[in-house]
Write a structure and sequence with these properties.
Helix content is 54%, strand content 3%. The chain is mainly alpha-helical.
Length: 191
């Protein structure tokens, strides 16, 4: 029998361990997935990430699998309908921001070719290794947050953006003894 895997200390429940093992910190370059994670991190503000993960399927259903073009076409009536769904976090501002942020993403795609190209430019197109689990923001997340806000994005404060960067592999903050940190050694650079 092999010894149990050593994970980052926050991955304590089965749901969080699965998220940690299969998603968190793995570099992502898919625009729809990046948009999903940015939207969900905004929904998480003031709540636990586990709460958001439990409601992720509800968000995916309501927001067309986070297909950016489809979300950008949604109307205020769609948001009113979503507000009735207990399968999402029913916060009007957060739900409206998904639609308005999708419209802003389309502008970024027109200008840069992809959301991925734009967002990854803030970290020099390679994951940054921080290894300081207490970080809430970095100069990179501050810059990304400021740039997104200037483009009209909502719920993209630096702390939210930093959590997004961790989730999508732009910042690798796996603890040094975590099995995921050891697996990703070849794809990172130091901060």
């Amino acid at each position: 029998m092999s010894p149990p895997l050593t994970r980052c200390s926050w991955a304590v429940s089965d749901l969080m361990a699965r998220y940690h093992d299969e998603e968190w910190g793995i570099p992502c370059h898919d625009d729809d997935r990046l948009f999903e994670m940015l939207s969900l991190e905004g929904a998480q503000a003031g709540l636990s990430w586990e709460t958001v993960l439990k409601k992720r399927e509800g968000y995916r259903q309501e927001y067309h699998g986070f297909r950016i073009a489809r979300v950008a076409e949604m109307t205020p009536d769609d948001v009113e309908r979503i507000l009735q769904n207990p399968g999402v976090i029913r916060h009007r501002g957060k739900l409206e921001s998904v639609v308005s942020n999708a419209k802003a993403v389309i502008e970024i795609q027109r200008e840069y070719g992809s959301l991925s190209t734009y967002l990854w430019s803030f970290v020099g197109n390679a994951p940054i290794v921080n290894r300081e689990s207490a970080l809430a923001s970095t100069p990179e997340s501050d810059a990304m947050s400021k740039a997104l806000k200037k483009r009209g994005f909502k719920f993209v404060g630096s702390t939210i953006v930093y959590a997004f960067m961790q989730a999508c592999g732009m910042a690798d903050d796996h603890s040094p003894d975590c099995f995921r940190a050891k697996e990703q050694m070849g794809v990172r650079r130091k901060a």
